Structure formats: C-alpha cells, structure tokens
Amino acid sequence: MRALKVLVLADALAGGLSAAAAQLSSAPTPAVTVGSQYSTTHVYVAPADFDRFVTSFVATFGGKPSKQAVVTVTPTPSRTLWQPVQSPVGNLSVFGYETPVPYSFGSERTGYLVTDIDAAVQAARDDGAAVIVSPFTDPIGRDVIIQWPGRVNMQLYWHTTLPRLGPLLTVPENRVYVSGDRADAFIRDFAAFSHGAVTSDDAAAPGVEIGRAGEAYRRVRIESAFGKVAVLVTDGHLPWPYGRELAGYEVSSVQDTLARATAAGAKILVAPYTADRRVSAMVEFPGGYIAEIHAAAPP
Question: Which whole-number Å values give the CA distances from 55 to 50, 88, 94, 258, in the listed order?
C-alpha cells in the first residue's frame, strides 16, 4: 500500500511538472525588435555590377548610399564590398564578394536588428527556428543566421553602437514563398518571435500575383515591429521570376517608378497589373536583383 501511495504521488508530481513545463513553453518569448527602418534586405551582386546596382536602386526609389567598405562579415575568412543603402521605401545591405561566398551566406534574405543577440537567439529557438550559423563577431557588432520552417533563412544583427535612422515613408514587404506543408508552422513561429499579428489570411488570393492568372492561392500578411511579411503559399509551380524576388516596395505611382527604373538601367519583368486593390509590377536591377513594386489601385 505504501509503495502504491508513493507511485501515485510520483505520478501526480510528474503530471504537475509536465503541466508547468507546458505552461512555461507556451509563454511568450521576449520582444527583441528595434524598428522596421533597421531591417535590411540582403542583396548579393558581382563586384563589377556593384556601383551600377546601387546607382540604379537609388535613382528609382530615392535615398542615399552610405560609405562603401571592404570588410569580412563572415566567421570564416572572406572579403566583400559592403554598402548600406537607405531609401524611403526600404533599406538594403549590398554585398559584392571578392572571394567565394562562405556557406550559408547568400541564402539569408533579410537582416533584422535586435536589442540583444543572445536573447534573440534563445527566443528564436524557443519559437521554432534553427540556428544554422552560430553567433559571431563582425566589425560593428554580432550576427547569427537562423532558419524557420519552410527553409526561410534570416540574419539577426546586434550593433555595438545603435544606428540612428528615421522612419521609412513606406515599409517594404519581405516576400516569403513557402509550401503548404510548412506554411502554418512558419506563420505561427515567426509571428510569435516577432510579436507580430496576422493582418490577413486569404485562402483564395488572385493567382495573377504569382504569375498564374485565373487561379487562386493562399496569401498571408504579417506585420510587426520588424516590418511586413507577405507569406505566399504555393505548390512551387511558379513561372519566372516569381519566387526570385525578396521584397515588395510600396510607392505612390507604379508607372512613375517604372519610368525612373528603366531610365536607370532596370528591366521590367512583369508589366503592371491590378489585383487585391493594388497595381503591381516586377523589375530586375543591374546585377540581377529582382523586386516587386506596388501602389494602391485607383478607386
């Protein structure tokens, strides 16, 4: 009888501990965001195309580039041209490697500035991300590369001295393509990590947005202090150039922006079309960077 009571007590304690652990694991992770103006799209171009790309992007969207430098921004030996570019519709980190690019750099699509790199790494892990490049030191701070469900790679930054940037005129969309198998996991985990909110979940979005007019697909939009994310859930049957763009930029006029882009050496890949109360198009800048451009459609 005594042994039975001990077993019952042990089971009760184990059950209580399991419940407590479940409550602890479901508790929100700390917010580590700084602001959408500190989120950068990572653009990799050949050194020969570097200046042409930066000049074309700034001529199209406005803004200004910071000073160009030659740096090592990986934990293993490498050498790259690097230049931050500020624009009113979204900021870039532009890389032009003079050496082979170490794995897995180039696979990360964005860099998010965080308040504390160690807290951010722990929060990302707790919210379902894998760390694929452990934290390392760069010339201005520390970095890490993480991967979310759906093989969505992002870089997190912490700067020794916090930069001072004004707010953006419009916040760009990080355009993430994921399969139906992993979409819900990515949406849940990234929204938890970013302390973001799903602002729309359209199970029958117009397929013209992914190059498949007359069909439908699922599109989910998330907003947080990191910025905006458009999650495009597809079967992978995507015509060129869909899936190759990293960001969507909101402008006041698509036609005027395209005129500036083409005058600055960019190519129109997808002519303007209207869907979801937007006029949208796609362009390719010198060096191969592809971007979506959109504006509110006339009423």
Answer: 9, 15, 12, 15
76 near 102, Cβ under 8 Å? yes
Q: Please give the full DSSP string across 225-262, using - where no structure is assigned.
A: TTEEEEEEEE-S---TTTTS--EEEE-S-HHHHHHHHH
Cβ–Cβ under 8 Å, residues 39 and 111: yes
Q: Which residue has the tokens 């001072």?
A: 164
pLDDT digits (tens, 9 = 90+) for 214-246: 999 999 999 999 999 999 999 999 999 999 999
Q: What angle do CA 46, 51, 53 make, to 5 degrees?
A: 75
Closest by CA position to 135, among listed 126, 127, 125, 149: 125
**Which residues are CB-contacts of 285 (< 8 A; sequence separation ≥ 6)?**
53, 56, 57, 60, 261, 265, 266, 291
Structure tokens at 2: 């005594």
Considering the entire predicted model, what is its pTM?
0.90
Nearest residue to 171 via CA among 227, 92, 109: 227
pLDDT, residue 297, reads 95
Q: Which CATH superfamily is domain 173-296 in?
A: 2,3-Dihydroxybiphenyl 1,2-Dioxygenase, domain 1 (3.10.180.10)
The greatest distance separating any two alpha carbons of the chain, rounded to the nearest whole angstrom, comes to 88
What are the residue ranges spanned by the domains of the chain?
36-159, 173-296
Indicate the DSSP class of residue 100: P
The stretches of the chain forming alpha helices (DSSP H) are 2-25, 50-61, 117-126, 183-194, 254-263
Token pair 């036609």 is at which residue? 255
Is CATH 3.10.180.10 what the domain over 36-159 is classified as, yes or no? yes
